[in-house]
From TrEMBL:
It comes from the Eukaryota. Residues 61-107, 199-228 are annotated as: Disordered. It comes from Ceratocystis fimbriata f. sp. platani. Residues 63-79 have a biased composition (Basic and acidic residues). This is Uncharacterized protein.
Length: 228
């Protein structure tokens, strides 16, 4: 989901930014810790889960697409050079019974060296976390907004230096603890098919989130596993 440019309204006390959303927001919170690339993190709950918004800071770099090499006459195979490889049935059965394990996706977003000199920060990235139910309330850590965490500020809670952790209450009377990396995901990470599955689709079988890199959750006192 992407947000259009906001309507800007200046008052004697402040400047207001109004964004047009495609769904009704039940609750909105600003996370007290900035992302490593300098963005303000905004969370809002809606009828299908949570949306995380990174506003301001350094932009994500666009991935350069290298053109495919042109096929030349020299690279075309000659009929005399063609080789036919025959696989035996035993090899095929063995490969089918022992498929190669897929490597977990590791997101490595790249950002511009400097943030744009713009008086009105733009939306850098958004991330939808589908819970399959409405999120009515969001609770974030009660602390003074900060850009960096000192080494001794949160002794024993090192995860707060790299992840945002917040709680949400749903219309189904369920409460979830959600952990998401502070760094906004790359566009390649958001394009993965597994991110379009319901976070709670396998809730009856396991508390493990189906979003391998973003959106780890825990219900009640059950702790979600962290794959990052």
């Amino acid at each position: 989901m992407s947000l259009a440019a906001p309507r800007i309204r200046r008052t004697a006390q402040n400047t207001q930014f109004t964004y047009q959303l495609s769904r009704r927001a039940h609750d909105v919170k600003t996370y007290p810790i900035f992302s490593p690339q300098g963005a303000t993190i905004i969370l809002y709950g809606h009828e299908n889960g949570i949306t995380v918004v990174w506003r301001g800071g350094r932009r994500l770099k666009e991935k350069k697409v290298e053109p495919a090499p042109k096929e030349t006459s020299k690279s075309k195979p000659n009929a005399e050079d063609a080789v036919m490889v025959l696989d035996s049935d035993s090899d095929s059965e063995q490969s089918a019974s022992n498929p190669e394990p897929t490597k977990p996706f590791v997101d490595q977003p790249e950002f511009e060296d400097e943030a744009l000199n713009d008086p009105y920060p733009e939306i850098i990235q958004t991330l939808d976390l589908a819970l399959g139910t409405s999120v009515l309330h969001i609770a974030v850590p009660s602390m003074t907004p900060t850009r960096t965490l000192e080494d001794g500020a949160f002794a024993g809670i090192e995860k707060l230096k790299t992840h945002m952790i917040f709680a949400v209450s749903c219309g189904t009377n369920d409460v979830y603890i959600v952990s998401v990396p502070l760094t906004p995901p790359s566009h390649e990470s958001k394009a993965r098919p597994e991110l379009y599955k319901d976070l709670l689709a396998d809730q009856t079988a396991s508390t493990e989130s189906r979003r391998s890199h973003y959106g780890h959750k825990a219900k009640g006192r059950q702790q979600a596993s962290d794959k990052v």
